[in-house]
Amino acid sequence: MKKLKVLALALMCAVFSPSKADEGMWLLQLMQEQNLADRMKAQGLKMDIADIYNPDKLTLKDAVGIFGGGCTGEIISPNGLILTNHHCGYDAIQQHSSVEHDYLTDGFWAKNYEEELPTPGLKFRFVERIIDVTDRVNEDIRKGKIEEAASFGAPYMKKVADETLKKSDLKKAPGISAMALPFYEGNRFYVFFIKTYTDVRMVAAPPSSLGKFGGETDNWMWPRHTCDFSMFRIYADKDGNPADYSKDNVPLQVKKFLPISLKGLQEGDYAMIMGFPGSTSRYLTESEVKLRMDAVNTPRIEVREARQGVLSKEMAASDKVRIQYASKYASSSNYWKNSIGMNKAIVDNKVLETKAEQEERFLNFAKAKQHADYQGVVQQINDYVARVMPLQTQSTYFSEVFRGIEFESAHKAFADLKEALQKNKKKDIEKAIETLKERFAEVHNKDYDHEVDRKVATVLLPLYAEKVPAEALPDFYQTIKEKFNGDYNAYIKALYENTIFANEKNFNDFIANPTVEAIDNDLMVQYSAAKAKTAKALADKLDEARGDINLLHKTYVRGLCEMYTPTPKAPDANFTIRLTYGNVKSYDPKDGVHYKYYTTLKGVMEKEDPNNPEFVVPAKLKELYQAKNYGRYALPNGEMPTCFLTTNDITGGNSGSPVMNGNGELIGCAFDGNWESLSGDINFDNNLQRCIAVDIRYVLFIVEKFGGCKNLIDEMNIIE
Predict the structure, then answer these.
(1) d(Cα 530, Cα 411) in Å, to the nearest integer?
(2) Cα(670)–Cα(659) distance, integer angstroms
(3) Residues above pLDDT 90, as percent of the chain
(4) What does 416-434 look like in DSSP terms, one character per residue?
(5) Cβ 314 vs Cβ 455: under 8 Å
(6) Where is the secretion signal located (predicted)?
């Protein structure tokens, strides 16, 4: 395609006057340019916008960070205490759980620092600084140092980040790293300096009967009564610097933490959320929405439903398996249901029709401007979709199936060992065997059950063969056909019983006498190699089919921003820190149905079902409810609040985000969206889009009255 002209970007997406809408995951560094303060204050913001984000002083931004690998957390005490969701801390809770110490079922409550549990691998990351590098990138393009199509690719972005950090005063600061990312589809670029703490300890978690109350039945639904929170703490060295776990580390004395409000909330009250939304696709065309529905969501639904059917049965039959697979199942089922809801909401909310109308308006706009690139870009994107649709469908089936089957071997390490054996190089043989030992331990980890995985493979391998063209099947399917007469059960039995990695005995027998013949004849080595070969071939075809799609998106987004002048537009989410503002608000999902904006503990008791593990209510909570022993956390009418709704624009990654009032005080913790608006990642609907949050009063009530952790309450700054 014709090379797109590099603009200094007239900031068409950045300097407009505010619009009356709650849509927008706004970049902190552009709030002033986009004149958001007036709109935020009109909706109820009382604090100065400069106290939300200001590169020259401590602000709310400094109390919010990335929890783990994909959630948000906030600091709620001067001693580094983190609040996030229960489902965000679920991996850590599961990691510490066993049949003997089942924190998933019983909860965990540390009454002092000594009882807090180190959690290997868990990190908390703060955004230390944000730097605009748009001019630098555009200058590199103009001078021919980088092709425009490669300017927002990972290698170049890493180079920009590394060079920016190298020139910074923070280049030698402990725990500091840098990442550069494109925004507005490559029309703007920013570098983020990130400070990472690696000693994060588990402090408090309610039992799953509270933290996951409602389970999959209530997931993405309202009304909600889930006490979806957990607490952790950052530890640092004696100087407050990031440090790996040590018994000598101390709780981090933070520079900024959030005060907590018990004043309550009313419909219409201002609410804002700061966090790290993972991914949205608000600038997709109609054809790309169809691509998402048919080539991503539908295959994901089919494969996960099949796998989850196996897991749920096995988890119900064994406490050991239930604990091993609890986090895996929760992660899988979350976006299984999300995909179902998204496809339904796209149809119900007429998203395709809305996109078509936008494209028609855009074409008329482009013709009026006599802008050739704008006039042709949507059709070029449609052509891209036609090329990619079958390949993307195959790719989704492939990733979902073979990610769902965990048993695997290290075929590359086996290849290295084979070469070393053929050359009779003792040191290389020893090195390859050590690598295989490490890989064997990784496969047969504490959260893996070989027989459960075998049952998953028995379901998924035939499913994959049904869903993709014969020529797209990995080579081991030919082995199933020719050597096992098409009998999947026989093949899988051999795979899971007779191969080198199948069990410790087989593995030890092999490494005691490794041979080239054993490697060549091993079904799992063949399976792994064939899978890798197919993955690469599919990735190469997709890369070729995608062509210049990134540049097409860059053109389309720039044109849309111009068309929508003077309405400000936020860039798509990409797991960078954002602010969204809105109000506490009820909604009407359909004719004759009204959902109020909050729920109470009464609803927990109404939903109780002792025969359904999703709706079991702990005896202690029932005692507190019957005694109305809520302390200072009750509503004026004596009821106990549980969850509430706001109009804030959030998505995955915002889980655990602080919900704050107009003074920047914590009133809740965001944990979900509502079923009716699951098309919101693609098209925001201000009438239906709602954020579901757990009320901070419910959190503190559970911590103090249920968990008995008055020690945690005492270290918070609580405003009554």
Answers:
(1) 10
(2) 6
(3) 94
(4) HHHHHHHHT-HHHHHHHHH
(5) yes
(6) 1-21
Choose among 317, 337, 545, 541: nearest CA to 449: 317
Compute and round to an integer the Cα radius of gyration of the chain: 27
Considering 22, 140, 228, 681, which one is annotated as catalytic?
228
Residue whose tokens read 């399976």: 527
193: β partners: 129, 178
Q: How far is 36 from 14, CA to CA, in rounded Å?
A: 11
Q: How far apart are CA 693 and CA 454, in angstroms?
A: 39
Give per-residue pLDDT as tens, 305-364. 999 999 999 999 999 999 999 999 999 999 899 999 999 999 999 999 999 999 999 999
Residue type at 525 in one-letter notation: V
Question: What tokens were used for 217?
Answer: 């039945």
What is d(CA 567, CA 8) in angstroms, rounded to the nearest whole number?
20
DSSP 79-91: T-EEEE-TTTSHH
Location of structure tokens 């590199």: 140
CA distance 383 to 494: 45
pLDDT in tens, 299-316: 999 999 999 999 999 999
Distance from C-alpha of 137 to C-alpha of 566, rounded to nearest angstrom: 26
Angle (CA) 450-456-457 rounded to 5° is 90
pLDDT of residue 212: 97
**What is residue 584's DSSP assignment?**
B
Catalytic residue among 287, 528, 655, 677: 655
Query: What pLDDT shows up at residue 5?
Result: 39
The upper half-sphere exposure of residue 342, i.e. CA atoms within 13 Å in the direction of its Cβ, equals 26
Q: Is 168 a catalytic residue?
A: no
Helix (H) / strand (E) containing 66 = strand 64-67
The DSSP element (H or E) to which 614 belongs, if any, is none
Q: Which two tokens stand for residue 25?
A: 């995951």
Name 284's bridge partners.
none
**pLDDT, average across residues 491-514:** 97
State the residue for tokens 């998953």.
456
680 vs 665: CA distance, rounded Å? 27
Among the listed residues 87, 225, 411, 553, the single catalytic one is 87
pLDDT at 228 over 80: yes
Tens of pLDDT, residues 268-307: 999 999 999 999 999 999 999 999 999 999 999 999 999 9
What are 263's two structure tokens? 């004043």
The two beta strands, 260-261 and 718-719, are parallel
Q: How long, in residues, is the chain?
A: 720
HEC per residue, 651-680: CCCCCCCEEECCCCCEEEEEEEECHHHCCC
How far is CA 127 from its chain centroid?
A: 18
Q: Are 419 and 292 in contact (CB under 8 A)?
A: no
Q: Among this protein's residues, is 677 annotated catalytic?
A: no
Please tell me the distance from the alpha carbon of residue 256 to that of residue 242, in angstroms, as a whole number: 16
Closest-CA residue to 457 (of 502, 419, 506, 401): 401
Distances 29 to 25, 32, 38, 138, 663 between C-alpha atoms, Å: 12, 7, 16, 19, 20
Catalytic, 51? Answer: no
Give the pLDDT band (50/70/90) at residue 111. very high
Whether 185 and 554 have beta carbons less than 8 Å apart is answered as yes
Q: How far is C-alpha 715 from the geometric centre of its chain's CA atoms?
A: 30
Q: How far is CA 501 from CA 88, 419, 421, 483, 506, in A?
A: 32, 19, 19, 20, 7
- β-pair partners for 109: 204
- How is residue 504 written in tokens? 């410790």
